[in-house]
Amino acid sequence: MIAHRVRVHPSSERLPRSQQLAWALAEVAADDVPVDDDVAEMVVNRVLDDAAVAAASLMRPPVVAARAQALSHPRSRGGTGSTVIGVDPGVRTSPEWAAWANGVAVRELDFHDTYLAADYSHPGDTIPPLLAVAQHVGASGGDLVRAIATAYEAQVALVRAISLHRHKIDHVAHLGPAVAAGLGSLLRLPPEVTFHAIGQALHTTTATRQSRKGEISTWKAYAPAFAGKAAVEAVDRAMRGQTSPTPIYEGEDGVIAWLLDGPDAEYEVLLPGPGEPRRAILETYTKEHSAEYQSQALIDLARRLHRERPEVGDPGKVRSIVLHTSHHTHHVIGSGANDPQKYDPQASRETLDHSIPYILAVALQDGAWHHEASYTPERAARPDTVELWRRITTVEDPEWTRRYHATDPREKAFGGRLVVELADGSRLEEEIAVADAHPLGARPFTRPQYLDKLRALAMDAIADDELERFVHHAQRLPALGPGELDGVHLTARPGLLDHANSPGGLF
User: Fold this and answer.
1) Are 306 and 239 contained in the same domain?
2) Residue 101: which of 495, 432, 489 has the closest Cα?
3) What value does the mean pLDDT take over residues 236-249?
4) Rounded Cα gap, residues 328 and 127, in angstroms
5) Who's near 397: CB < 8 A, 6+ residues apart?
6) pLDDT per residue as tens digits for the range 344-382
7) Pairing state of beta strands 120-121 and 115-116?
8) Interval 385-413: pLDDT, tens
9) Smallest Cα–Cα separation from 271: which of 394, 177, 335?
10) How far is it, in rounded angstroms, from Cα 450 to Cα 45?
C-alpha cells in the first residue's frame, strides 16, 4: 500500500495533479489488476445482498417514487439502456436514472453492507450505478467485478482516513468519488478523465448530515442514489472533455479547507500501489438485521438475553438499562445524539432504525428482529415497549471507542456492554463485541447465508422461478460475457407493481 499525504495547499503552490488525491484514486482505477478469487466471490455475495434488500423494498413509497421518476425518462442513445429492478427487463431507462431508482431500492431498508472507521459507509451503494452503466455499455461480468472491487477500494480508503461526520458532512461525499473511480475502471478510462469525474462527483455530493439527524426523512434512502447518479453524470461530462474544480481536496478553497479539518489538516490515505490487488471489500461486512450497523451486535445480544433472562424485557422488573459503547454509537444512534425523536413512538421508520434505545427495547421483548414488523406504528407505540424504551440510555466508553477505531481486525468492534439495574436491586452486565454475522462473529455470513437472506426477503415480491434464474445468473457473474449483465436483474411477480401508487410529479 502507498500512503498518500493529503493537506491543503495555497493556490500559489500550483500543486501538480500527480500529487493530488483525486489523481491517486484515478490511477488506482486505471490499473488493470486481476481480481483475486476470494474478492470476486465476495463481490457476488454483495450483488446478491443488494438484490435481496432491493426486492424487499419494491412497494415502499420512496422506491415507488424513484422508480416512477426513472421510468419517465427514456434510455439514452449512447447504449442499450439499463434495467430498473422489479420492472420487465425489456423496459429500459438511461443509466443515471436506473442508478437512481435501483440505488433507492437498495438503500431504503438500511439492510446491506457497511464499513466503519473514521467515517461511515455502505459500500454496496456503489453497485447500482456500476451495474446500470455496465448494462448500458454491454460490459462483461469480469468488467463489472473489477469495477466493484475498485469502488470498494476507493471508498474504504477514504472512510478509513477522512472523517466527514465530525464536520456534519454526510457520508455520501466519499461515495460519489468511489463510484466515479469504479466507473473509470469499468470503462477503462484514462486517469485524466477519471480524475475530473472524481472531482466533479465530490463537488456535487458534499451535503450536510441533517439527513440523518432529528426527524429522519425518506431522503436518507435517496442520498446515496443521488451520489451514484451524480457520479454517472460526472463521468459522462469528463468523457466529453469537461473539467473539475482542482485541486478538489487540497485547494485553499476546497473541501478539506472549508468543509473538513481546515487549512492545517493532514490526512494519510492508503491506496494500492501499481499491480497490487484490490482487497478492501473483504474488510467490509453485511447485516443480518434491518437496522443501523452499530445496532447489529446489540440485537444479537438482546436476542440471547430474551432467551436466557426474559425479565430484562419487562419494564415492571427493570429500573434502567445503560449501554456503554463507542463514541460513534453513543452520538449517532444513542442518547448522545440529543434527538428527542429517538424516544418518540410516532417517529418515522428512518428515525427508529437509528435509535438504539428503541431497537434494544423491541429486541429484548421479541427476541427477534424483522425489517417490517419491528417498525410498525403499533409495535413502536406498545405501552410496555415505550416504558422500557425510555429507561434505556447510552454512554461513551473509551475502551469501546478505541476498539471501534482499531486497525487490527481482531480488535475492531462495534458492540458494547449492557448494564441492567433490576427492580429487585440486582444488577446484570453482558457485553458483545461483534455481530453474529460478522466474519469474527458466532455465525459468519458466507454464500449460503447470503442466499438465505435473498430468498427470505424476495419471496413475496419475486416468483420462485425468476428468483432461481437470477441466483444462477448472478453466481456466474465473473464469467458472464459482454451483454449478459442484462440477466443480473429481478422482475417482480406479475401484477405486483400495478398496485404501487405514488403522486404524480414533474416528469
Assistant:
1) no
2) 489
3) 98
4) 26
5) 324, 325, 326, 416, 417
6) 999 999 899 999 999 999 999 999 999 999 999 999 999
7) antiparallel
8) 999 999 999 999 999 999 999 989 889 99
9) 177
10) 6
CA distance 195 to 29: 10
Residue 456 located in a structural domain: no
Block residue for cell numbers 447504449: 79
* Cα–Cα distance, 451 to 453 (Å, whole number): 5
pLDDT score for 119: 94
Same domain, 158 and 229: yes
Burial class (CB in 10 A: 0-12, 13-18, 19+), 500: middle
Pairing of strands 392-396, 318-325: parallel
**Interhelix angle for 296-308 vs 356-366, to 10°?**
30
Tell whether 139 and 273 lie within a shared domain: yes
Question: Which of 389, 409, 432 delimits the end of a domain?
Answer: 432
Written as nine digits, the cell of 257 is 479547507
Domain with 179 in it: what CATH number? 1.10.4100.10
Give me the count of residues in the chain.
507
Q: Could you give the CA distance from residue 333 to residue 336 in angstroms, rounded to a whole number? A: 8
Q: Could you tell me if 275 and 363 lie in one domain?
A: no
Residue 280: all three cell numbers together:
478492501
Q: What is the CATH number of the domain that holds 308?
A: 3.30.1330.120
CB 348 within 8 A of CB 217: yes
Q: For 334-350, b where at least 16 C-beta lie within 10 A, e where not — what string? A: bbbbebebbbbbebbbb
With CA atoms as reference, report the closest residue to 298 among 338, 326, 336.
Answer: 326
Q: Using the predicted structure, report yes or no on whether residue 99 has a pLDDT greater than 80.
A: yes
Domain boundary among 432, 448, 473: 432
Domain count along the chain: 2
CA angle 269, 262, 221 (to 5 degrees): 70
349 and 212 in a common domain: no
Same domain, 129 and 184: yes
> Does residue 164 share a domain with residue 26?
yes
Residue with cell 478539506: 256
Domain extent at residue 404: 293-432
